[in-house]
Amino acid sequence: MSCGAKKEETTEKPVAKVYDKNLYPSDLQNIVPADITKKDSIELMKKYIEKWIQDELVLHYAEENLTTEQLNIDKEVAEYRKNLIIYNYQSELIKQKLDTIVSQSEIESYYNSHLSNFILKDNIVNVYYIKLNKKTPGAEKVKKWYNSSNPKDIDNLRSFCIQFAENYFIDDKTWLLFDDILKEVPIENYNPELFLKSNKNIELADSSYLYFLKIKGYKIKNSPSPLNFEKDNIRNIIVNKRKLKLVDDMKNQVYLDAKDNKKFEIYTNEKN
Fold first, then answer.
1. Whether the model pTM is above 0.85
2. Fewest CB within 10 A of the end CB: N or C in the chain?
3. How crowded is the C-beta side of 82, counted as CA atoms within 13 Å?
């Protein structure tokens, strides 16, 4: 029962009243969680009562100022109920039936078939990046390790960074926005494309930190985006297409079953 709709014979004493509508203690039973303090409980209750009063005042004002036609919302409520029930059913169907596993071959196939959809809007890079405090012991080893192609040296570099680096990124397979790297490394750069084409290893220092940046690969904006950069996006696209197809197939099947079993009729007015 909604707040303020209780019968007059109730023995409850209201906690608030707006015009002819009352708010009762029983209306507040499920408002306060069981695991909060008494002080927080009182504060939450006060906020709820204030909101109820405000809503009822606005509702009363609206009812006084809207036309009879505007107040007749039965059709809108029925439409909302219908759409909500359909939405809830579709959500449950998707939860139970949707296949969310997307293979690498499916991702590659979609990427190759829609390459024109994957054009970079920004410059991206594949990098090793390390930021060290100048006082970090053994910092001289970093230069040797991050320029090496020996897997053991890369493991040593990663282990060192875990212990000592202020920030770092060491991943051969992941692409990053170059603008995000520029936020981390104090590079004065007015032409990102020219910078990427002209630099591979960058070592910088300011008053507090040492910066090591190795650009292992780059892609200039307006060129095709690499598959690894679009992988998650493509997976989401494929899953969403499956979701839409699942819902459409359900609608079509419901329609065909009802048609076969003569569960609906369409009447036409034909003029003689």
1. no
2. C
3. 6
Whether residue 45 contacts residue 28, with contact meaning beta carbons closer than 8 Å, is answered with yes
User: Which residues are registered as beta bridge partners of 16?
Assistant: 23
Helix (H) or strand (E) holding 204: strand 201-205
What's the pLDDT band for 2 if we cut at 50, 70, 90? Answer: very low
In this structure, the dihedral spanned by the alpha carbons of residues 45, 50, 56 and 61, taken in order and rounded to 10 degrees, is 180
Domain boundaries, the chain: 1-67, 73-118+232-256, 120-219
Amino acid identity, position 170: I
For 258, the token pair is 């009802």
Highest mean pLDDT among 9-13, 36-40, 71-75, 155-159: 155-159
Sole residue written with tokens 């770092």: 168
Of the candidates 25, 28, 21, the one whose C-alpha atom is nearest the C-alpha of residue 7 is 21
The CA-based angle 48-53-59, given to 5 degrees, is: 125
**pLDDT reading at 102 higher than 50:** yes
Indicate the residue type of 40. Answer: D
CA angle 115, 116, 119 (to 5 degrees): 95
Q: How far apart, in whole angstroms, are the C-alpha atoms of residue 255 and residue 190?
A: 61
Q: Which helix (H) or strand (E) holds 153?
A: helix 151-164
